[in-house]
Amino acid sequence: MKAAKFILIGILFGIILYKSEAASWYRIYEMFQFRSFHMYGMIGTALATAIILVQFIKRKQVKDSNGMPIVFLDKDKSITRYLAGGTIFGLGWALTGACPGPMFALIGSGYWTLGIVLLFAILGTWIYGVLRNKLPH
Predict the structure, then answer these.
(1) Domain region containing 83
(2) pTM tops 0.85
(3) Helix (H), strand (E), coil (C) string for 79-98
(4) Domain count, the chain
(5) Cβ neighbours of residue 57 under 8 Å, at least 6 residues apart?
(6) Backbone phi, psi, residue 15, to 5°
(7) Residue 48's pLDDT band (cuts 50, 70, 90)
(8) What is the mean pLDDT of residues 78-94?
(9) pLDDT band at 91; cut points 50, 70, 90
(10) Spatial distance between the Cα atoms of 7 and 15, rounded to a whole number of angstroms
């Protein structure tokens, strides 16, 4: 029953991404050319919402769906890994026109070529898992 709830939330999230044009390759292209505020406004709204929700979770000591407390780890002082990871993520996003959330929404809306992107996203995740212990963290 819990799985059905999360599947429904995922479907709702995909519909919102698609209807708000966050999954639009053209909107992402506009963003990377600094020609439109649309995506920056959506990302800024998501960031503001996340900040508010994280503060709420910390102050109210909210528990996860299994009843376990949600724990936030201390900030990492290493900026290099965030710059490298963000650059790789951004390049992939710019080349494919989709980050992971919209990627699933686009496949669900019939853009089957994004299946290739999904395949390589899974492959990249698997390679990271294999190399994780050898990478500097």
Answers:
(1) 2-36+73-134
(2) no
(3) CHHHHHHHHHHHHHHHHHCC
(4) 1
(5) 70, 72
(6) -65, -45
(7) very high
(8) 85
(9) confident
(10) 12
